[in-house]
Design goal:
461 residues; mainly alpha; globular
Amino acid sequence: MTVLEDKPADLVRGLGLWQSTALNIANMIGVGPFITIPLFISAMGGPQALVGWLAGAILVLCDGLVWSELGAALPGSGGTYHYLREIFGRRPFGRLLAFLFIWQFLISGSLELASGYIGASNYLAYAWPGLRDMLADWRVPGGLASVAAAGAIGIAISLCRPVRALGWLALVLCGGTLATALTIIAAGFSHFDGSLLTLPPGAFRLDGRFAAGLGGAMTIAVYDYLGYYNICHLGEEVRDPGRTVPRAIGLSIFCVAAIYLSMNLAILGVLPWQEAMHSKEIAADFMERLFGPQAAVGFSWLIVWTALAGTFAMNLGYSRIIYAAARNGDFFRPFAWLHPVHRYPAVAVMTIGLLTAVGCFFPLQQVIEAAVTVRILIQFIGQIVALHVLRSTRPDVTLPFRMWCYPLPSALALLGWLFVLSTRGAWMLLAGGVVVASGCAAYAAKRAIHWLTGRRGNGGV
């Protein structure tokens, strides 16, 4: 059974290499670097934070090999959920683990999406100077947060259409995303001032403060790289996944890592880092410094486009995760409902849109840190363990792609995730624990309802 259950196979496998890579890149870039560079610089207190970008790139490259092997071996809608279910499903805790992943993903995925809309609303306010006053005059609750929430719901509605149309739309949106990033890189290096990259005293003193700063910078970097695995969420809709998934992941990581590093250097070569770390619309400030206010306003509109491209790609992939779990009976049944004609998971799409709208009313930095912290334990660490279990206990599963130098990349990824997790604040770790505990309670409630309704002959929840 596939996402387009009763449609011909050529309609199901609608995403090729370039469409898959485009979905990843649109997800990875989005508005992330345009809202996080100030947070990134402040994490380590200077341009030495670029080390965090490199460390983050190494981490996601190693983790990308884990995704590539799993995505090639077990193609299917749902990404990590699908892998955990296939690998641990024969064990008593397998369904609980799959449910917990979906539960935390509803939260972390919605927060990740919300951060994009929050950043886009700030640039929208820059491009439309009278927007804040207009919202205040109209007594709109939450002001810009309500605009961001409306954008989340609007994108969710736009995703209610067949996947083939969405694949080509992803290419168009990705084109706008790349144009935005390349414009900054070209403008920055043509006006580059190397003297602005002066390091503060003790920039590389290896102590607890440096470790905490590096962990914070890596958290921001990981947030910006998130999405290198987006195509794994659409595995059933990919042509030749054994070859397409690993290539799309590798291409997107290398392309985006080069773009990010170049973009950071370009901006820091124009804006002093002491100024950049306090900016709220750093790309607009960058363009205003080089070409004046009008250019900054026009560029802000382009960044809004970029933000919508990223959130479009994320919501598309994330909705398939929730749908796949519900279809298999591992999550609440209403999420398995498909549109009777176009066969898209409308309940999953719109639920993510609504939860994202709620997340738009929280502070940006808290949203970003929570989005990364909540998913590390079950998703990233969980599927590293799952890969080793797959290799050692499932000889029946063919591995079209095998990571190089196994198990070194997966071991490095595990150490990286544990380091990032260890540097998060106590309240973030507590929030992650609350998510897991509440997920266990929800799973128990689901099982109880299923047992009661099953005894009455109503089929469960």
